[in-house]
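DM between two lab members

TW: hey, do you still have the Anibiotic ABC transporter efflux pump entry open?
JB: yeah, one sec
JB: this one, 540 aa:
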Amino acid sequence: MSGALAGTGQLVRFILSRDRVRMSVWAASMTAFIAYFSVALSTVFDAPALAARAQVMRTPAGIVMGGPGYGVDHYTPMVAVANEGTLWMVGALSLMAILHMVRHSRAEEESGRAELVRAGAIGRLAPAAAALTTLALHLAVITALCALATFAAADERSLPDALALAGGSALVALVFGAVALVAGQLAATGRGTLGLSLAALGLAIAVRAAGDMIRLEGSALSWFSPIAWAQQMRAYVDLRWWPILLAPALGLVLVLAADALAARRDLGQGLLAARPGPARAPQGLRGPLALAWRQQRGVLAWCAVGMGLMWFATGTLMSMLEDMAADLVAGNAALGALFGTDPTGMSSAFLGVMMLFVALCAAVYGIVAAQGGPRGEESAGTLELTLAGPVGRGRWLGAQLVLALGGSLGLLALSIAALWLGTVAVGLEEPSLADHLGVLATQAPATLVFGALAAALYGWAPRWAGLSWLLVAATFVTGMFGVLLDLPEWALGISPFHWVAAPYTEDPAAGGALAMAAVVVVLLVLALLGFRRRAVVTGS
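TW: and the structure you got?
JB:
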């Protein structure tokens, strides 16, 4: 084993140096999320409001989007954090773990770098061991930071419960990191590995939701999902540690399975042979637009399914959420400034806040597709092969951006339609379909600004393309807290949504939407011009 693990320490140091910024961003984001959630529920929501939240968490949609319902009879702020936040923490950390393992295992083999590394004094198991070690160290740091943030921000200061909330989520995420390691032995490509791993995560979420819907506080079916193990620790209700012991046990089994499978395959190959394609491509697959569709259709389809279900479920809860907002406004002056105190306009203001989340979700897809897909092709060296044929730079990037921004627009339309269908399913007649279509027309140009900005940054300076995420953060802060913080007009103007009509207003003006559409066009032109002028850099 010492020979098989030779060089693990060197690879660990290399990964930590290579991903230090990426790891720091994840740690800071998760810490900020749990701290904000704890402070918000402890300061904004009083006892009646928490009781209303508990009623929501008893509904099927609340169970699917939250937890099994421990402590709903005595719903304190930290019980709400544990019951509603654990699923989101596990989901985010599991996604991070999957991406980390794919990046440092199958993706390295696919690029050919793993073969160069293995040519040195590096053991057969060292790359996988280094990836798992760095993932475990990263999750340990996140656990410590999140536990301290929860302990400091909460009124119910219980360090064991804070550690259970953060540590349980981290151990489940480590399980899905091991799942990605197994998937990397089966699939022959990084995309295939990512797809199998995300499918396993989605299946675990579905099994947990189905099990908890059978019986409040969980049924036997719930225990077949690792996500339930973190939730069944019952943090801040009736803390128990033994359920999470299942996570390291399963993780060890998966690691041993990955080792056994790795011994049966060649480097760079997968046990599941790639399905051979036809000898001749059909006419519909010839061209950069068809290539872009082939590359993005899988991610777009999964995003459509997830966002459609999430916003449909939100629509079914809209009446209860609006009543909860009205009760909060009645006893909280700060929320009155955000939603207004007029009952006739409060509903529109609340829906406007919901629409901010809808639009930002669609905008995030635009950013990922506009910079991630093109940059991935460029880094892997496949872009050079594509451009060596009869395909111009502008035509290739234009096809990628058509799919990226078109997908963002499609997700926005789908989310708004799902939200409307959810309200119709529970008998709500307002806002009408025409009102939702008006919101789509005004919000669409502002939503596309995010993807267009990412494209412009990629066209001129790919290494700085990540700055487009700062616009997402600024938009969220100004949209949610701009009024409460009394921010100046120039700060509010950073958000593209500041320049378009507020959602669900009686007479939405078209001037702002046209201005944002012009901004999108200018950014896309800049993206094409910059890409035509700069060099293509393999491995960037």
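TW: got it. The mean pLDDT is 82. The first helix runs from residue 8 to 18.
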